[in-house]
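Example record used in the benchmark description.
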Amino acid sequence: MGEPKSTAWEAGELTRAGAEHPHSIESDTDSGGKLGLPQATALVIGNVVGTGIFLLPASLAAIGTISFAIMAATTVGAIALAIVFGKLGARIPASGGPYAYARDAFGEFAGFWTSWSFWLTAWGGNAGIAVAWVGYVNYFLHWDSTAGKIVIGLVGLWLPALINLTGVKNIGLFQLVTTVLKFVPLIFVAIVGLFFMNTDNFGPFNAGGESTWSAAWLAAGLILFIFSGMESVTIVAERIRDPERNVGKASIYGVLACSLLYLLATVAIFGTVPHDALMNSSAPFADSINNMFGGSIWGGVMAACAIVSGIGALNGWTMLVAEMPMAAARDGMFPAGFAKLTSRGAPVVGIIVGTLLSSLMLLFAYASENAFNTILLFASFTTAIPYFFSAAAQIFWLVTGGRQVNKGRVAKDMFMAVLALLFSFAIVYGSGEQAVMLGMLAMLIGVPVYIWTKAKRGEYGPKEITARKVPVEPGGPGHGGLGHGGTGPTGTGPTGTGPTGYGPGTTGPTGTGPTG
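Model output (C-alpha cells):
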C-alpha cells in the first residue's frame, strides 16, 4: 500500500518522536537484531490467535448464527483500527505504540494512563492464556491436580520469558515458527471444512432465546477480545526494520489474516458439527475434523496445535509486557528500572516483573472458582483504553495538523479513525458492568503510581515540551514566536518573536526568544 510523501508536519513529528525517545535512534536495541515484515506480521498473528480460537465456535454456537454478522462487523472495526495504527506508526515510529501516540497528542498523563492500562492487559491476559494452555497440555500429561496445573502454567509463563531474555532475534524466529505451525492446520479446517458442510447443522439464528440486541452484544463480548494483540507491532516499533512502512503493513496484514481465519473457521465448524453437539464441545476443531474424516486421532492433533498456539501467544505477549513500560520509563513515566536493557537488548526488569505478576495472577485463578472469566473480561476492558486513545490521537491530529494534507486523504483517514473509536467503545460496552468497574479501579490505582514517579523526579505538573502550533504549507502565512525558537536564557517577553519562525507571518502572542 503506497504512502504519499510526508508533509512538513509529519517530518516534524518524526523528528519530535526521535527527540522524545532518544533511544529509538541509538543502537542499544539493535544488539538483539531487528524484525522484518514477515516476523512483524507473525508477531501480530501470534498475539491475536491465541488459545481462544480453539473454543470460540462452541461459545458462539450457544448464541446462534447471528454471530456471523457480528464477527463481520467486528472485523470491519478491527481493520479500521489496524489502519489507524499504521498511520500513527508511520508518523511516530517510536516504541510504546499507543503510549507514544497518546502522549504526543494529549500529554504525559494520558500517555501514562495508556501505558498503565496496556500493562494491566498484558500481564493479566498472559495469566488467562496460561490457564487455557494448561487444559490442552493436560490432554497428554493428565496432571489434573491443582498443583500439577499450576506447575504446567508456570512453565508456560517462564519459558517465553527465558526466550525473551535472549534477545529480539530469537523472539522473532520463535514467533515465526509457532505462527506457521498453528496457522496451517487452522487454515486446513477453515477451507476444507467448507466442502463438508451440512446446512442442517447450523442451528437457529438466535439460539439463546434472548432479544436480538442482547444476543448481538453477547456475541460481540466474546468476539471483540479475540482481536486483542493487533497493536503488538506498534509497541515494538523501534525493533522493526523500516518501521515507517512495516508497522502499518504488519498491522493490516496480520488483522486481515486473522479475520479471514476466524470467519471461515467458524462457518466451517458450524456446518460440520451438529448444533447441539457443538454447544457442548470442548474441542470443536477436533470434532469438525473427526466428522469430516472419521476417527478420533484428530483430537490429539488439534490439542498439539493449541499448545503451539498458546506458547506462541505467550511468547509475543511477554515481549509486549516489557516493551510498553520500557518506553514509558524512558520518558520518566514508569520507574527507571523498566528502561534497563541487557547486552542483548532485552528489557530485563519488565520481562521478570511482568512474568512474576502473571504468575501471581495464575495462582489467583486456580484459587478462585470464577477468576478465569473475570480475568478475561477485565483484560477486555483494559485493552480498549489504548485503542481509544490511539484512535482519538489520530482524530486530534487530523483536525489540527492533518488539515494541511490533501482533503480527500483527510476524509478517508477520518472515516477510519471514527470507526476505530466506535470499535473501542464497543469493546468497553461488551466487557460488561463488572469488568468496567474492576477495570476503572485498577486504572485509578495507577494515579498514585504516576504521582510517586513524578515526585521521585522532583516535578510538579506536566513535563515541559516545546510548544507547537498547527503547521502551514511552505509559502503560506508564517508562525511567530511559538515556532521553533526555543526558550530564551534571559526571560520571556509577552510579544517576543522566536528566531526561526515560519515565513513572513504574524508575531506569536506568547513566543519565546533568546532576548525576550
